[in-house]
Q: What sequence folds into this?
């Protein structure tokens, strides 16, 4: 199981772009990278998933370099409502997914 | 609307009592999961079920029990053997296929006094 490392916390201001990086040095060939968002006293919700290069959806972009040993979640023009914990999950590309969540990154968006 | 329903949202129990947390999904998902979250921490896997009538221990199963008699339901019992049961409990489901997302309920906050 690939271990992930994220910053414990980050601060930003409204309107800024926020980039949260996750390290996963022992990612396996078949592993995917998935990011979830969790607000206080709520369950996490899926944000974005990717395997390599860049993936973009209506809320975020995910950048994955060629070696896939890290990934960066990019949130454009954050607002106060983006204050949450963001989790990076890696794997599995085969077998059953048990969805292992680490400690995540607490993003605090200030006015 | 499809989704996962956990009940109740808040639960108080006296020490030494067993308590059962409800989790129901209408997403037709094969897989279901229970997680525990302590303040400022990530989620830890308690039990999971890949298919009805089958379930497996996660990383912190001691003091907990589950059943999966119906595809839609995956109740979690917190027994008196659980040393520190006060926590936020989250239930999730997925199709069980690789690279699919997990859908979470709103959680149950259990306080044992």
A:
């Amino acid at each position: 199981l690939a271990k992930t490392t994220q910053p414990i916390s980050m601060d930003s201001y409204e309107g800024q772009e926020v980039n949260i990086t996750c390290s996963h040095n022992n990612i396996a060939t078949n592993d995917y990278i998935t990011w979830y968002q969790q607000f206080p006293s709520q369950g996490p919700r899926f944000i974005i998933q990717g395997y390599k290069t860049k993936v973009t959806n209506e809320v975020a972009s995910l950048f994955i370099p060629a070696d896939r040993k890290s990934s960066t979640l990019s949130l454009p023009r954050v607002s106060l409502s983006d204050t949450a914990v963001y989790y990076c999950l890696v794997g599995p590309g085969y077998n059953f997914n048990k969805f292992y969540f680490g400690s995540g990154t607490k993003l605090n968006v200030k006015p | 609307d499809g989704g996962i329903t956990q009940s109740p949202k808040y639960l108080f129990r006296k020490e030494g009592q067993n308590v059962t947390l409800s989790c129901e999904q209408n997403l037709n998902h094969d897989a279901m999961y229970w997680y525990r979250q302590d303040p400022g921490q990530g989620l830890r896997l308690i039990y999971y079920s890949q298919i009805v009538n089958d379930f497996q221990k996660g990383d912190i199963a001691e003091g907990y029990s589950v059943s999966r008699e119906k595809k839609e339901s995956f109740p979690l019992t917190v027994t008196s053997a659980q040393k520190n049961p006060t926590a936020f409990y989250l239930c999730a489901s997925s199709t069980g296929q690789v690279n699919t997302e997990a859908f979470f309920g709103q959680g149950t906050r259990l306080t044992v006094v």
About this structure: The mean pLDDT of chain A is 93. Strands of chain A lie at 9-13, 18-23, 33-38, 45-50, 53-56, 61-64, 70-75, 84-90, 105-110.
